[in-house]
Amino acid sequence: MERPGVNNDAAANSRLPLIIVGGGGHAKVLVDTLRVEKRRILGFVDPRPSLPPLLDVAQLGDDSIINASAPSEIRLVNGVGSIGCTSRRREIHENFCAKHYHFETVIHPSAIVASNVLVEEGAQIMAGAVVQPGSQLGANAIINTGALVDHDCTIGSHAHIGPGVTLSGGVIIGQGAHVGTGAAVIQGIKVGAGSIVGAGAVVIRDVPPGVTVVGVPGRVIVKVGGLKNKFRV
Ligand SMILES: CC(C)(COP(=O)(O)OP(=O)(O)OC[C@H]1O[C@@H](n2cnc3c(N)ncnc32)[C@H](O)[C@@H]1OP(=O)(O)O)[C@@H](O)C(=O)NCCC(=O)NCCS
Fold it and tell me: Which of 221, 222, 224, 232 for mutating ligand 1's site (highest number of atoms within 8 Å of CB)?
């Protein structure tokens, strides 16, 4: 579907049949979204054998099945979510892009995406999410169910903004970071690449790359040799 304000270049072939990569919960939600958009879904792939269907969509086999279709014949949808580390999702995106496959950009019709928002290839904006003007969503990023991304935010590639998260204006989320369910980040904060913000955290200071932050206010948990030291950022 053409969306005003959204960079639709990546969706130029968007009526091609789709294969979902991954057979878990996030993939199921995507199937439902794509059904609303009346997209043809060939099936899903997953390394785990004999998974139950995703709604009415059956498993085709493992990821190698994708090689049977040329990149010009299908679009992929990254069905792998994250509950913390986003590396598996990133790996899938990068591996198939290296083989010249393209990932469909998915935007639920109930999402509100303002004008002047840049959405890169393979980004996913789930039901009820809101993205305000001047924001940019990197390739393969997820704005999950009901999340609010206020004006002028930058969401790095492969980052996951979890269900019900609130990002205030001008927040920068680094590549591959995960912002957990219901967390809030105040205006102008930078969350470093690969960092994890725990569910329900309130982030009021910049977060360095590669750390985990939990609590109100957000504190970094550093795990060294099994010890966990918490300090305020
Ligand atoms: C932050 C998180 C990744 C930590 O997971 P973990 O590395 O397995 O850490 P642990 O469960 O061992 O917890 C470590 C410590 O942090 C605390 N903690 C973990 N998550 C917390 C949170 N969200 N808020 C406050 N404290 C938290 C634990 O109580 C524990 O404290 P302790 O050392 O005093 O006992 C995880 O709890 C979380 O919040 N994940 C987000 C899930 C999410 O967004 N899901 C959405 C999927 S769509």
Answer: 221
Ligand 1 lined by 202 (C-beta under 6 Å): no
Residues forming beta bridges with residue 122, ordered by sequence position: none
pLDDT at 225: 47
pLDDT tens, position by position, 175-227: 999 999 999 999 999 999 999 999 999 999 999 999 999 999 999 996 544 44
User: Residue 20 in 3-state DSSP?
Assistant: strand
What DSSP line would sit under 50-86, residue for residue? SPPPBTTBPEEESGGGGGGS-TTT-EEEE----SS--
User: Is 93 among the catalytic positions?
Assistant: no
Phi-psi region of 64 (alpha: psi -120 to 50; beta: other; left: phi over 0): alpha
- If you measure from the C-alpha of residue 178 to the centroid of ligand 1, how many angstroms do you get, rounded to a whole number? 12
Closest atom, ligand 1, to C-alpha of 197:
1
Q: How confident is the model at residue 105 (pLDDT cuts 50, 70, 90)?
A: very high
- Express each pLDDT in 40-86 by its tens digit: 999 999 999 999 999 999 999 999 999 999 999 999 999 999 898 89
Structural contact between residues 133 and 151, judged by C-beta atoms closer than 8 angstroms = yes
Structural domains of the chain in order of their starting residue, each with its CATH number: 18-104 (3.40.50.20), 107-232 (2.160.10.10)
Answer whether residue 231 shows pLDDT above 70: no
